[in-house]
Specification:
By secondary structure, this protein is of the alpha/beta class. It has two domains: 54 residues, DNA polymerase, domain 1 (Orthogonal Bundle); 278 residues, Alpha-Beta Barrel (TIM Barrel). The protein has eleven helices and twelve strands. Strands 1-2-3-4-7-8-9-10-11-12 form a ten-stranded mixed beta sheet. A two-stranded antiparallel sheet has the order 5-6. Helix 4 runs parallel beside helix 5 and helix 9 runs parallel beside helix 10. The two termini are 20 Å apart. The structure holds S-adenosyl-L-homocysteine.
Length: 357
């Protein structure tokens, strides 16, 4: 537990007051704010401040709401995973993926998770608490700092690719259920849009299917991508894998989700983890096809990332392709999610879990 004030959480006026209170001129507040907006992880990087001020600030305050505890680079050369510590000692995970279409950050919306999905590592330690807007936003700035460091983006010549050094996509698919923390998630997305200029279409919210939250997103009315973690084609099987299905049935979830995408002119993303011998049979593929026939959606098949504490099996390459072929024959857009950073435990919650044990 660190109880120093976090400058990133202050308004401009509060920051100015703080700077004046330590005997500094007001313009220093603007300089500090500029560094904070770029995700400066500490004061020593703030080279335009005098050294004694940097030292004083270091003793009195912190820059961001989260601090990097561990940084893991995947051997794929494209994926960096951060274990971050919040001010109250809770830990969260954030993943940066450098892809051909840009730099994507996978953000956590809660410390832990209450949803209890049987295949997932994030939920094993239960829910600690919701993250604030700033805690979500600072995950993105942590990734942005990783990409750009202390260089201002105006000075960068990124191999002809304007996205090379900026976060271009954000997926709210890390630990936690964003639609149990809907207002902060909405505030966070608004900040991505206004402060970092990230387009709505480059933001994705993934949910296990909280119908009231999906309706709140519909009322909010911006054309983000919505992903539903379906993982089973029937209520009977889904209820065994995902307790939330006892509250909201598949038909209700899909009705709310298709309503969202039709109002926002988007395509619904359906996430379907393949668990060998559980939900990957020919019959399951047929049932899923029937459920999604003629619907405006894209199915992402995700071979399960194994979690030691969980008793499932990853599917073979053959069964993944067999499943995909059946969906495609039935006219359902389907792709297989390329897993990134498996060597660094990119499946939900694994890094945080390993840290605790
Ligand atoms: N609560 C939200 C977002 C977090 S989970 C949701 O349910 O969508 C992000 C995605 O990762 C979900 O589709 C989730 O089911 C999936 N996931 C969880 N554990 C996994 C694992 N071990 N292997 C592959 N995908 C996993």
């Amino acid at each position: 537990m660190i109880d120093k004030p976090i400058l990133f959480n202050m308004t401009d006026a509060e920051l100015e007051q703080f700077i004046v209170s330590i005997g500094q001129p007001k313009f220093r507040a603007k300089q500090v704010a500029e560094w904070l907006s770029r995700g400066a992880p500490n004061f020593s990087v703030m080279k335009n401040l005098p050294e004694n001020l940097r030292n004083d600030l270091d003793n009195l305050a912190r820059t961001m709401p989260c601090t990097i505890i561990k940084k893991l680079e995947s051997t794929d050369g494209q994926t960096t995973k951060f274990l971050l510590e919040l001010n109250d000692g809770n830990q969260i995970e954030t993943v940066l993926m450098r892809t051909s279409y840009g730099n994507s950050v996978c953000v956590s919306s809660q410390a832990g998770c209450a949803m209890g999905c049987k295949f997932c590592a994030s939920t094993l330690l239960g829910l600690k608490r919701n993250l604030t807007q700033n805690e979500m936003f600072s995950q993105v700035l942590t990734a942005q700092w990783e990409l750009r460091g202390d260089k201002d983006n105006k000075n960068i010549k990124p191999n002809g690719d304007p996205n090379n050094n900026d976060v271009s996509h954000v997926v709210i698919m890390g630990t936690g259920e964003p639609l149990q923390n809907t207002q902060n998630t909405i505030g966070f997305m608004e900040k991505l849009h206004s402060d970092l200029g990230i387009g709505w279409r480059k933001i994705t919210v993934s949910t296990c299917g909280i119908v009231t939250g999906i309706r709140e997103l519909t009322d909010w009315g911006h054309p983000i991508n919505l992903a539903i973690s379906l993982h089973a084609p029937t209520d009977e099987l889904r209820s065994k894998l995902m307790p939330i299905n006892n509250k909201y049935k598949i038909s209700e979830v899909l009705e709310a989700a298709f309503d969202f995408v039709s109002k926002n002119n988007r395509q619904l993303m359906i996430e379907y983890i393949l668990l060998a011998g559980t939900n990957d049979s020919v019959e399951n593929a047929q049932e899923l096809s029937n459920l999604l026939q003629n619907k405006n959606c894209m199915v992402n098949l995700i071979p399960w990332n194994s979690v030691t504490e969980r008793d499932f099996k990853s599917p073979s390459g053959n069964s993944v392709h067999r499943f995909q072929d059946i969906l495609i024959k039935n006219g359902i857009h389907t792709r297989i999610r390329r897993e990134r950073g498996q060597d660094i435990g990119s499946a939900c919650g694994q890094l945080r879990l390993n840290q605790k044990s």
